[in-house]
């Protein structure tokens, strides 16, 4: 979950490294550091615990001699706490070699014992320093950084991306990856490495995706990629479709505020180019009709917010494609010996495409013979490359750790997939698809109406609730996963207890939590399109209202039945049941952000969390 950047070229590297790390800080913000080979051939490093600004201030007060070869790192702590000593880079070979690392080296303890027995000493508690010392030993044996890398990675177990430079080989940065992200940026007389294209997108949009168990060496004029055995490999080029400005706040108070405002655009962009004459045609799935007609079951795998998007998608896939769907947490899936085979389609959902739990579940599914399809927001990511098919969301870069616009884009992609598969399998007529497409295409404007009409109101009562210690969210049908998402968002960024429940479960235990003053958000179904569910949810509201709860209802415009029982009503435009989640979740995102802001918390970088979870 760390941010990594490497640079070789004619420009002073420090500015490039620091600006790249600023775009990667969402991946880790416990500490940060850089290493630079200066113009005199010296290796200078600086690393500090805390957020990147602390390192910036230190460099401003005590500058390093600059050079044109460098690596930089922002850390999310695994082995060892967030201290200066544990921050990256780590040094070896008499401080001539610097290494940065993303992931976990699972056999670091055995390797460390071996190195200590040889007389090596360590200055940190990290697994990364073990790799650095091992690499230093191999470099002294070979005198070649690439060959030393090859010998080192053959000893490592686990998930890792490693970058290194050596004082004796200026103009060279070497990287390796196993189960952890690494991409290459191609410039004019300069080249870049990064854990994400955000690291270098302000300098180039031309990129290469490095594969599993591969080593890359970059110089200003050349990029060489080989596998761990030394054989040359082909690399997949791609163009980054967004520019650096898309990853800037653009005057917003936070990235999360900006990204919530972009939810209409995220939905619209995910639809764009995939609807023709009222039918859904997803270009990435051309020629794959046989895959969809040959399945008898779908399993959706994901974690956190993405799993809740999958739960919403289950309703659409079953209703429109008429195929049974299970939704499972990716980190549980492969450890329970699931029954899957050639007629199973495993759909993975990951904003980053690097979520380690999900990646390993995808690999497990493929090894078991299942077909795999990924829904992802990030070009060049690992999960899409490991899958048989891919549907990209087009939410644009999402920097805030807590996902908002990527969530609505994931639901949109799942709806498009369901309509596509429904057409291929003959489960939906062209007329029925056109009706659903018209509803989906109306969603962006409806989300914009929610933002315009409700945001100020929601932020105001969120401010009043800043001292709240617990919030409950209830929903039925597609409102249930939205209740779960509302609770998760509040936990993530405000650090208060929040739980989401299926409203029908209320009398089966959760009602014991209701006491006077308890805030309860209720997702109220449409009284026109879901009259039976609406009546039952209103009954649930009456039950908890009678016990003194404070009710905040998310209800359709014109629904008067909730007014006698709700303390606050957040209105959403009329929509068919399957499209209500895309509208109902918006007030919940605004509320979580508003409450956290009222508490004075950092909504973009909540404690203990990182954007891309690249360790199991």
UniProtKB/TrEMBL annotation:
Enzyme class: transferase
Chemical reaction(s) catalysed: D-fructose 6-phosphate + L-glutamine = D-glucosamine 6-phosphate + L-glutamate
Domain Glutamine amidotransferase type-2: 2-221
Active site: 2 (nucleophile), 611 (for fru-6p isomerization activity)
Assembly mode: Homodimer.
NCBIfam families linked: glmS (TIGR01135), PRK00331.1 (NF001484)
Alphabetical list of PANTHER family matching this protein: GLUCOSAMINE--FRUCTOSE-6-PHOSPHATE AMINOTRANSFERASE, ISOMERIZING, GLUTAMINE--FRUCTOSE-6-PHOSPHATE TRANSAMINASE (ISOMERIZING)
Name this polypeptide is given: Glutamine--fructose-6-phosphate aminotransferase [isomerizing]
The species this protein was found in: Microbacterium plantarum
């Amino acid at each position: 979950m760390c941010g990594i950047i490497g640079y070789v070229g004619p420009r002073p590297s420090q500015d490039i490294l620091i600006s790249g790390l600023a775009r990667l800080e969402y991946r880790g913000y416990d500490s940060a550091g850089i290493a630079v080979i200066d113009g005199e051939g010296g290796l200078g490093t600086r690393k500090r615990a805390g957020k990147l600004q602390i390192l910036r201030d230190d460099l401003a007060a005590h500058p390093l001699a600059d050079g044109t070869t460098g690596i930089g790192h922002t850390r999310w702590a695994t082995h060892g706490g967030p201290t200066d000593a544990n921050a990256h880079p780590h040094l070896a070979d008499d401080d001539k070699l610097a290494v940065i690392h993303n992931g976990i080296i699972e056999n670091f303890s055995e390797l460390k014992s071996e190195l200590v027995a040889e007389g090596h000493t360590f200055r940190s508690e990290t697994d990364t320093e073990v790799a650095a010392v091992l690499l230093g030993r191999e470099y002294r044996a070979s005198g070649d950084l690439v060959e030393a890398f090859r010998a080192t990675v053959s000893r490592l177990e686990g998930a890792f991306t490693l970058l290194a430079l050596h004082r004796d080989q200026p103009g060279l940065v070497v990287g390796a990856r196993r189960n952890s992200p690494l991409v290459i940026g191609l410039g004019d007389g300069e080249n870049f490495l990064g854990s994400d294209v955000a690291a270098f997108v302000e300098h180039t949009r031309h990129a290469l995706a490095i594969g599993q168990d591969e080593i890359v060496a970059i110089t200003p004029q050349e990029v060489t990629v080989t596998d761990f055995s030394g054989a040359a490999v082909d690399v997949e080029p791609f163009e980054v479709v967004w520019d650096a400005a898309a990853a800037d706040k653009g005057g917003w108070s936070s990235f999360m505020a900006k990204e919530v405002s972009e939810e209409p655009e995220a939905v619209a962009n995910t639809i764009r180019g995939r609807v023709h004459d009222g039918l859904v045609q997803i270009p990435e799935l051309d020629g794959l009709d046989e895959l969809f007609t040959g399945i008898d079951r779908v399993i959706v795998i994901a974690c956190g917010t993405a799993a809740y998007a999958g739960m919403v998608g289950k309703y659409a896939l079953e209703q429109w494609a008429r195929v049974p769907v299970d939704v499972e947490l990716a980190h549980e899936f492969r450890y329970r010996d699931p029954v899957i085979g050639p007629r199973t389609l495993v759909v993975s959902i990951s904003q980053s495409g690097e979520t380690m739990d999900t990646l390993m579940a995808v690999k497990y599914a493929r090894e078991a013979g299942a077909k795999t399809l990924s829904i992802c927001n990030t070009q060049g990511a690992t999960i899409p490359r490991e899958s048989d098919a891919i549907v990209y969301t087009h939410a644009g870069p999402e920097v805030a750790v807590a996902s908002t616009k990527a969530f609505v884009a994931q639901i949109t992609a799942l709806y498009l997939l369901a309509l596509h598969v429904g057409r291929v399998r003959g489960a939906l007529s062209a007329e029925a698809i056109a009706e659903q497409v018209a509803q989906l295409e109306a969603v962006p404007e409806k989300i914009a109406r929610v933002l315009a009409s409700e945001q100020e109101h929601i932020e105001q009562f969120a401010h009043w609730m800043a001292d709240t210690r617990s919030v409950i969210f209830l929903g039925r049908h597609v409102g249930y996963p939205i209740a779960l998402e509302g609770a998760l968002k509040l936990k993530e960024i405000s650090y208060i207890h929040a739980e989401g429940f299926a409203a029908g479960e209320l009398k089966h235990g959760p009602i014991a939590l209701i006491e006077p003053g308890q805030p309860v958000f209720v997702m109220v179904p449409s009284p026109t399109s879901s009259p039976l569910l609406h009546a039952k949810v209103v009954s649930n509201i009456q039950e908890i209202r009678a016990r003194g709860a404070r009710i905040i209802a998310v209800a359709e415009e014109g629904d008067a039945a909730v007014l006698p029982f709700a303390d606050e009503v957040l209105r959403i435009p009329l929509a068919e049941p399957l499209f209500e989640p895309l509208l109902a979740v918006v007030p919940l995102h605004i509320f979580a952000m508003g409450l956290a802001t009222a508490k004075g918390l950092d909504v973009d970088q909540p404690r203990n969390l990182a954007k891309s979870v690249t360790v199991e």
